[in-house]
Inverse folding.
């Protein structure tokens, strides 16, 4: 008998019928002899509806009150799922985040979990009950209701799995698992049966939109296996776990395409220590996220610096950098919104050589010019022309054999 | 500067526009120099919608889970009202019932308040904030969410007013105040400017549908003045308070009509001590509420007993009583659904005579036969034929001059 934490997203509990289906799935796990803790999100569009309602009253609502409002969404789901389990003849009990001791810091709308006591869950499991917990929410030590921000329900599930020493944490979604690439971009993308935390972290941050990185980070930190599965089908999903020998044999595990970035280049920045830092500190102060940074010294006493930012932050980024140009001695600035970033990720890269040259020669064969290159231990990213992104991603995906079993 | 508790019902906060209007009203009170605590119900039909949603999943949901579900309704309202107050440029903070220490017993769906600490409210008021509290809800000492049942939000408001030593508690509704009779039945009914707790308690229990008796009882116990006012108009409502000399001059303050009762008669019940008790204990065990009870000894060794129950409990009542007939020696049983109960209420009755005779002669003048009579210190009730109820109520209302200022 194992303890398993399962998480169901908003689309899995969007109406009464779907809630009853989730209840059946939960009961099946219980019947297989396991202790089950279920984390649920708000029903379908409920969160969006509540946000729209708030917008009718106040365009800039206080985050504390938004948390008060939005946390009701998950509370509705847990009560209904408990009723569904009862209806099917099994014992269940629902708890809010605050009730099970999910303690967070005080940053409303994006709180971080500080501690999970889970005493009430343990007691209810001991009584033979299926325990249903509201995702996405917690409370501060002084009793203020908080929400955890994007990917919050996944985070609740993984954090509870860690606190309860679960065998693993199952994340149920609309897809069969995590793919070697986005199937909407690369139809021949295949489901990965296994991946490491680091690979998924790189894929998530590269725009593969799988799971939010915060929950993967917690999984990695506490070595909690995470299974991503389809809530509508009974198929094996993707297991996210720590690396093992066998996994290193797979050189590249996925390809990611990001089309939401823009490139900024500052020309002839003074080549003195601390100058680059000044540019990026200014951007950080303006709350602009910078992704790739390339610096290449081509002249004496000065250098060009290029970096990418999210397109929707481009205007803010340009304004910020222009204001700082004089301080860093730059002579001019350009930007390019027509770019795409293609990345290959794989822990096998560390022990295999030739990945970069294979990637670059594939691009050359397709006459795709490389604009920027950036590498980390387990990934290589290139920036190419925006209209070449999809072609590049697909060619690279094929070149590394990701379309074959 | 006084502390005032205001309560707004579901129809007063049914949409964004109405919530902003309530916010204006609350701010007006704050601007007049008062400390304001606001209690709100769930928006319009939200509670009914949630009940319907639960019904799609489980026809007999556990009461604990219904409380978990329904308590979200008020939580949505408090967050939105706080946002509305912020929007209008004032400080406000919302709290759930559990957050402000409303501690109840463990009877889900009809919990009774055991204690109110209200420390967080006092602190927030001290910080100059308008405090907004979710009505209808609390938590048990062990942290289970409970709801207070019918009239629960009124009860929250009065209990908070008592705990905070408020100057008075204002209950905002859709009507101008409490009337001498139901205006839908007696169009010439007038608004009372003042009434005693006892009068309103009698009127409420007699079917005048004004405020739930639980909150009036708490108001009476702690001598907390309650003002019933119209949330849409700026008119004086009805003040419910303890009695004073002047009030005794008004002999009859209201007339109530109840058309939802049925009469049961048991014939030739053994006339021994404890027999009547047996009948009503059986009904109590079956959870049937009995209203009027009349016993009249007309034979030797036996007596007839008549009593009234709510029509929708008649079937259950008949079944229960029939099963107990032998035990009490009764020979037969009849029932009558075509009855109406008309009552006059007024604390002045205690010091004035002739009320009963005036009531009975008024009925005689209109050729209305009296079937049952029951009296208490401040009320007289009669049962008449069902189709004569409205005529009787109206005639009595006029006879006591309630239609005139």
């Amino acid at each position: 008998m194992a303890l398993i934490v399962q998480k169901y997203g908003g689309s899995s509990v969007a109406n009464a019928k779907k809630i009853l289906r989730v209840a059946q799935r939960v009961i099946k796990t219980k019947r297989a002899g396991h202790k089950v803790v279920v984390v649920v999100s708000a029903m379908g569009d409920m969160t969006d509806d509540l946000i729209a309602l708030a917008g009718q009253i106040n365009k800039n609502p206080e985050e504390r009150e938004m948390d008060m409002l939005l946390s009701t969404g998950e509370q509705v789901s847990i009560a209904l799922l408990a009723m569904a389990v009862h209806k099917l003849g099994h014992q269940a009990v629902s708890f809010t985040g605050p009730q099970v001791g999910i303690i967070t810091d005080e940053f409303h709308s994006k709180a971080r979990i500080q501690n999970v006591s889970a005493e009430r869950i343990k007691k209810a499991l001991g009584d033979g009950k299926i325990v249903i917990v509201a995702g996405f929410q917690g409370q501060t030590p002084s009793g203020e209701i908080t929400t955890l921000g994007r990917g919050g329900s996944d985070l609740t599930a993984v954090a509870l799995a860690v606190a309860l020493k679960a065998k693993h944490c199952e994340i149920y979604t609309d897809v069969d698992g995590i793919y070697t690439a986005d199937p909407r971009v690369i139809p021949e993308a295949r489901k990965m049966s296994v991946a490491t935390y680091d690979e998924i972290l790189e894929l998530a941050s590269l725009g593969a939109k799988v799971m939010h990185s915060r929950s993967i980070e917690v999984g990695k930190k506490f070595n909690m296996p995470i299974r991503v599965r389809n809530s509508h089908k009974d198929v094996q999903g993707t297991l996210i776990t720590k690396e093992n020998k066998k996994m290193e044999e797979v050189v590249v595990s996925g390809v990611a395409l990001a089309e939401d970035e823009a490139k900024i280049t500052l020309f002839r920045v003074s080549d003195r220590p601390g100058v680059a830092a000044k540019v990026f500190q200014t951007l950080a102060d303006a709350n602009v996220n910078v992704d790739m940074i390339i610096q290449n010294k081509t002249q004496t006493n000065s250098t060009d610096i290029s970096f990418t930012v999210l397109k929707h932050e481009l205007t803010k980024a340009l304004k910020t950098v222009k204001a700082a140009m004089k301080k860093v001695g730059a002579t001019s600035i350009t930007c390019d919104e027509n770019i795409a970033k293609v990345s290959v990720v794989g822990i096998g890269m560390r022990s295999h050589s030739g990945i970069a040259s294979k990637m670059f020669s594939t691009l050359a064969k397709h006459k795709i010019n490389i604009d920027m290159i950036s590498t980390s231990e387990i990934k290589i990213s290139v920036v190419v022309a925006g209209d070449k992104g999809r072609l590049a991603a697909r060619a690279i995906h094929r070149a590394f054999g990701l379309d074959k079993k």
